[in-house]
Structure formats: C-alpha cells, structure tokens
C-alpha cells in the first residue's frame, strides 16, 4: 500500500474514534486529544472523590444571617394547602425505578436514620453561609425503596415555580445515584435546631454539601429514580441547567 493511502485510512479511523470531539477540535488532532485527556482526568478525579466529605464546621462558625435565595415563599395551590395545616398531610413520594415505591409523612421521615452536619453553602451568585442541618439520610431511604439496577439518576421535583404562577415551570434538580448515596446527602427538615423555615425549603430540602446551592432542591414534592433525564422538562437535568447552568456543580 502506498504510504499516502495508508495515512488517509488511518486518518479516517482516528477521526471516527474521536467522535466525542467537537467540530473545531476535530480539525486539530492535538487540540482534540487534549480535550479527551481533560475529559478522562475529570472523570477519574470525580471517581476518586466519590466518598470525600465536604468540610464540617463547629457551632461557633454558624452564620448569624443565612439568606434565603430563589423561591422563598411558594404560591402554588397544592403547596399552600399543605402549608395551611403545618404539612401534616404532606407525603414525600418516591417512585420510578424502585422495587418498593414510598409515600412518607414528615413524622415517618423524622423517624428514619438521620445525620446532622454544620456545613458551608456556596451560591453561584457569590455568597456563602454556614448552617447546621439535620435530615434523613437519602441512602437509607433509597435502600428502603430498593433501587433497580438500571436507575442512574435521582430527580427532585419541587412545589415552586419561580414566576409564582400556577402553571409556570416548577423547579427541579437531579443528581446521580452515587452522589445521592453520599454520607452527607440528606433530606433536611431542620436548620440550626429549628424546623426548616419556609424560606429555606420547608418541609423538606436537599443538602448536597459538595455542590453549589442551586443543586439543593427546596420544597421537595416527589423524588423519581430514572435511567435518563432527557425526557424531563428541558432535558438538561434541572431548572437552571435548562437555562444554561452546568449539571455537575462540584466545589
Ligand atoms: N425549589 C427550589 N430550590 C432551590 C431554589 C429555588 O428557587 N427553588 N434555589 C436554589 C438556589 S440558587 C440556592 S443558592 C439555594 C438557596 O437555599 P436557601 O434559600 O436556603 O438559601 O436553594 C436552591 N434550591
Ligand atoms: Mo444559588
């Protein structure tokens, strides 16, 4: 085979193998392999960091002022009805790819294994604050629900629409199953030793201490185990993700 031809065939094969690179990068082999290397190292860093704990603080570090952000007082009628009697009729629905779907009252959730942690919250808008959170360990609740092997993501559907209309897009978020099983991932119902305030997500909000604030869904209505979130809302895995934010918001 003449060398030129060989090079051409190899070149075509390499271009196919590098299918993950974008069109600009594909025009330069070097740029493309750098991009590949970066993706591989990001993946292995995340795998190595799977069990790492976010820093925890002491009582004396708790911020005197922890601001509430995003929705602070949902107006959806289903939420208002539950709020009116102190969330006594609230049920957390957990369904999707599980053997044992759950419907849990706040009393039942409070009776589940819990964790308390003093952690720092970082909002993408540039503020941070430290608070103490107590909540049910999501890993234990997932054990109870018996997650099917094909489930890859945990989706949190919330009561609030940011435009406060009845049919506005409601907040939602998603994380992968290993992140949901992390020791510090809790469904919080207490903040600084008090019942979780409405402004901070009552009756139940996610605490996910190694990612940015927007991942931590407040006002959780339902949790669904899915194989993919392509079919949900804008398909990017979260309210803000559908509007351009990154799905993985590790800090
Ligand atoms: N349901 C819902 N969850 C949400 C939001 C929201 O608007 N609605 N805002 C997010 C953002 S951007 C941040 S920083 C935190 C704010 O939590 P806080 O109100 O306890 O400060 O909640 C996150 N979770
Ligand atoms: Mo935020």
Automatic annotation (TrEMBL):
Membrane-spanning parts: none
Domain Oxidoreductase molybdopterin-binding: 88-227
Domain of life: Bacteria
Pfam families the record matches: Oxidored_molyb
The protein's name in its UniProt record: Molybdopterin-binding protein
Organism: Brevundimonas subvibrioides
Biological classification of the source: Bacteria, Pseudomonadati, Pseudomonadota, Alphaproteobacteria, Caulobacterales
């Amino acid at each position: 085979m003449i060398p030129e031809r060989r090079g051409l065939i190899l070149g075509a094969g390499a271009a196919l193998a590098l299918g993950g690179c974008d069109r600009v990068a594909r025009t330069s082999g070097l740029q493309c392999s750098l991009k590949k290397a970066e993706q591989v190292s990001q993946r292995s860093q995340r795998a190595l960091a799977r069990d790492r704990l976010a820093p925890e603080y002491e009582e004396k570090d708790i911020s005197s002022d922890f601001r509430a952000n995003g929705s602070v007082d949902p107006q959806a009628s289903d939420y208002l009805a539950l709020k009116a009697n102190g969330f006594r009729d609230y049920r957390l629905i957990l369904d999707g790819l599980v053997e044992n779907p759950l419907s849990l009252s706040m009393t039942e959730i409070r009776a589940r294994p819990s964790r308390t942690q003093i952690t720092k919250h970082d909002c993408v808008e540039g503020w941070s604050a430290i608070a103490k959170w107590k909540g049910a360990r999501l890993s234990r609740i997932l054990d109870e629900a018996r997650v099917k092997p094909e489930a890859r993501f945990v989706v949190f559907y919330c009561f609030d629409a940011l435009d406060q209309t009845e049919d506005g897009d409601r907040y939602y978020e998603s994380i992968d199953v290993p992140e949901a099983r992390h020791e510090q991932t809790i469904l919080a119902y207490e903040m600084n030793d008090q019942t979780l305030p409405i402004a901070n997500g009552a009756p139940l909000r996610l605490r996910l201490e190694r990612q940015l604030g927007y991942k931590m869904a407040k006002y959780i209505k339902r949790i669904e185990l899915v194989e993919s979130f392509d079919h949900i809302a804008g398909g990017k895995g979260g309210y803000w993700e559908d509007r351009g934010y990154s799905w993985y918001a590790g800090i």
